Amino acid sequence: MANQEQIDQYRDQGYFIADDAVEPEMLEELTAAARRVVAKVRSGEVVDEDAGIRIGGQGEEPQFVSGLIAPEFGEPVFAEYLGSAPLARYLRPFLGDELRLGWVHLCAVRGDYHIGWHRDIGGNERDGSYEVEMEILARHRKNLVKWHMALAADPCLWIVPGSQRRYRTEREHECLINDSQGEIPGGLQIALQRGQTVFWNSNSIHRGRKPEGLEGRLTLMGALIDHRTEYDGAGEKGDQRWLMADNIRASLPQRTRRYYDNWRSLAEPR
Predict the structure, then answer these.
(1) Can you say how many angstroms the Cα of residue 195 is from the centroid of all Cα atoms in its chain?
(2) Quick one: which of 235, 202, 227 has its CA closest to 15?
């Protein structure tokens, strides 16, 4: 379970790193499954279906693959991981005991990877006044916790600590709007070792940058949601409409199925 130091760091700095948010045996299974998933996308064995699974990672070199818990991939370990007890223990202090489905995606990068500085604020105003930006930060994604778990050493995420709770500086504004590949004073590289997990607030100013010499990035990116909070149809449904397929629920383990049922009870068309 997250200790008080980690809880305080998340609230103040916008992130903390855990060494034991995945069981060692499951880490091995996830790594092997992730490599098989990438191979299936590259070969065309699993593709997007208009009336079914949406995988996101089309093409010979997919960078992000979603839909990992779909039976089409034949890798039940991803659904087991999403509902695993170590994750729930770390999320409980922030989200409570009753969760609903978020997502688990795979970042699988072999080539160049440079995503510029930004906040994950969806369709909200990106160049607003102090009042506008602070209002967005006060409400956006307050009901979920996001994480990255490294299946191989991953130094690609950069965060500006504390930026999730304040207005941007002049330099940050320049990088957010005009110079996304520039440098921000205080930007911190989050260098994860294999099996480490960073839990972080994506309202933080952040970027993704694959260093030269790094062979590849193989990282799971997930989130779960506090089920006590109001449902956000745009933010929670989006490209997850494939989860309404008839073959999804029966393939899920018990805890993940509960998350799914909680989500579907709100996402189901009325």
Answers:
(1) 16
(2) 202
Question: pLDDT tens for residues 39-98?
Answer: 999 999 998 887 678 888 777 778 889 999 999 999 999 999 999 999 999 999 999 999
**pLDDT tier for residue 239 given thresholds of 50, 70 and 90:** low
The pLDDT mean for the chain works out to 93
Structure tokens at 134: 């602070």
Both structure tokens of 142: 């307050």
Residues 6+ apart with CB under 8 A from 193: 150, 153
Helices 85-95 and 4-13, packing angle to 10 deg: 60
pTM comes to 0.94
> Which tokens belong to 119?
């906040």
Going 87 to 92 to 97 to 98, the CA torsion angle's sign is negative
